[in-house]
Design brief:
Blueprint (H helix, E strand, L loop, with lengths): L5 H8 L5 H4 L25 H11 L14 E5 L2 E4 L4 E4 L2 H4 L8 H13 L10 H11 L8 E5 L2 H16 L4 E4 L29 E4 L33 H16 L8 E5 L14 H11 L3 E5 L24 E4 L10 E5 L1 H4 L15 H16 L2 H22 L4 E7 L2 E9 L4 E2 L2 H13 L2 E2 L1 E3 L5 E4 L7 H24 L1
Parallel strand pairs: 3-14, 5-6, 5-7, 7-8, 8-9
Antiparallel strand pairs: 1-2, 2-3, 4-10, 9-10, 11-12, 12-13, 12-16, 15-16
Helix pairs in contact: 5-11, 6-11, 8-9, 12-14, 13-14
Length: about 500
Amino acid sequence: MINIFAGFRAGRSGANCSPALGKFLSTSSVPEMPPCDHQPRPYEGPDYTKVQSIKKQNIVPCILSYYKKPLLVHEGHMQWLFDHNGKRYLDMFGGIVTVSVGHCHPKVNEAAMEQMKRLWHTTNIYMHPKLHEYAEALTSKMPGELKVVYFVNSGSEANDLAMLMARAYTRNFDVISLRNAYHGMNPYIQGATALSTWRYNVPIGNGIHHAMNADVYQGIWGGSHCRDSPVQTSRKCSCKPDECQACDMYYGQLEEVFKFSLPRGKVAAFFAESIQGVGGTVQFPKGYIKKAFEIVRANGGLCVSDEVQTGFGRTGETFWGFESHGVVPDIVTMAKGIGNGFPLAAVVTTSTIAEALGQALHFNTFGGNPIASATGLAVLKVIEEEKTQANSLAVGTHLLKRLAKIRDQFPNIVGDVRGKGLMIGVELVADGESRTPMQSPHFLDIWEECKDRGVLLGRGGLHGNVLRIKPPMCITKQDADYAADILHLAITRFAERVLKK
């Protein structure tokens, strides 16, 4: 336990502490929450105890709630959430990377309500205008021949359909995904999810192979020159800025899958997130995805980019995460931020690949629902009008640099800060040199204190030791500073409490 305080002691001496961070080293000084002029309505639902009882008796036990005393949230406004007592929280997780333009955004609300007054539902057996307007608007955001869309309701459904589509088109069966990946929980796609914490002891994954994850922080190779991020890992490597040896080594491991695990020249698809989400905001070495796409296509397969979490401008520099890898996929899946919280998802591909579904009937009752289409169209308009992509880049880069200062001050508590735009991960460790994941009780200590002080953060990674920061893309630099200040305060207090023991 001694090593955990090495960075803490250095910070207390002032050697590694910037003025912006140092002013909160005194735990008697608490940052002030940014103002908000929204007043939530009084809570009128069942009381907290009754809700807990209902959850225990009527909700399946696998549906877990965050925090020791779960929040009872009843209202949202842009980047803010309010609990049943009216307490305000800065939502830095966005309903698991889903609230893209802000809770109850007035323009999105208006579009949905206006459509509800006109037409709720028909299914696609009839044409209705919002579906076609939205299909045209969404596909206009895609490069190349990616101009055909199939609407579904969730990311799991989208990835499930993408796998079916790839197998039907190529007439090949084997699929590759990466270890540490999360692509959904539908039975068909569940095999591509390569995290033991999300896998059941049931027959899944027939024909699916998991390649070594190209993780430059926790993986075998990689370091401070390897990833496309404003903040590099402090782990050292011998790579040059324009030449990533880690990329070549991880690519060699992917080649091994083709050599030993697949029929020669026969692969259906390769699935990859642009930045791994549930797995802890893991970024691949520069050039890895591009090389992976090349070998997949050379063996007859399709390349599927999972943009469920990284799409719609969240990474800042580009509208889609895959664009930062310099590739154009064959199939793109998207969900979450596409509808700002409304159940909506999509698979976009080329007309040639889409024709493969004509081999049999395929239908989704609620996909492209009129209200969903109106909502999705409104989200696209807000992203453009309010320049949320540019905001993600500016505020996200600012926040990443603030978090990197906390890492530098506490290198044996904060192991890594990574991400792009407002797709950010902070990996907490028990020891910086060995990169040993922080034990759950210690992680919860920091995480709970942030919540108690009004900042909601996500949790991810195989060991549950990564803070996932993916807020609504409307947050301000003031909000980002508040979140960083509260995290800094929580880490400082954690170090002081543990040190006293």
